Amino acid sequence: MSAKTKRITNKLCELAGVSRQAYYKWLNRTESARDRMNKLIEDKVKFYFKEHNGCLGTRQLALYLNHDIEVSEIIGRKRMTRVMRDLNLTCRIRQKKQDRITRKEQEIRANILNQQFDVTAPNQAWLTDFTELRYGVHGENKIRLGAVLDLYGRQVLSYVLSPTETTEAAIQCFQRAFQAEGTVTPLIHTDRGSAYTAKNFNFYLENHHIKHSMSRPGTPYDNAPIERWWNDFKLNWVDGHEMPTTLSGLQELVESGIKYFNEKVRSEKRNGQTPVEYRNQAIS
Question: Which pTM value belongs to this model?
């Protein structure tokens, strides 16, 4: 080592507040089993954190590491907290949703349908709901898909895409359904979302002489058929195609998917018929 290098080293040790002996001991140290395990744990934490899009907290990360065959130690939450702090990792948490309308503006209705899903004819009862879809290069864009489902045959009568779940979008979806079905007065069943408890939405239904049924609080099964339809639509159609990068691409995917479920999917409950065939047979 040259004299200049020694002087620089001495100056850096002085600034850092460590002795030259401690510095050279650290420089020439042999990595211990503890050091290797700590490094492995840090690498695993970064891997699982990235794999789950930053959604894992200390409890879940500890769970993943304790089920990793390469990690031979039991990892506790306190240690995981220290590791995450050292790596500057912060878990993404779900923000509490704000009530967008006050209680005095809500229009609450009774659960008239009461899970009576076996109707005997078309247009006796319609269900409606919104679900979230994503599009973009990395799925960074979100949009809400609303639909009206006839309980008889489970045919989607209309749909609407909206940036958010609004009363205007819900009304537009029903306007399209009535245009397609003509003058009918089905029982309408919804959940208690703000779009359906708004005065404007209920005023629209009343003008069409339509009764409004609502699910009970915290009871998604009251709207089970459309919840099941969303699940099948996403699992069997959306997940089976590449994520659209544009809104127009998403619109094409939704339209072709609804047409597929209405005109191609057969069920034993419909005597082997598609929803369109089943409803047309009843109407004729």
Answer: 0.63
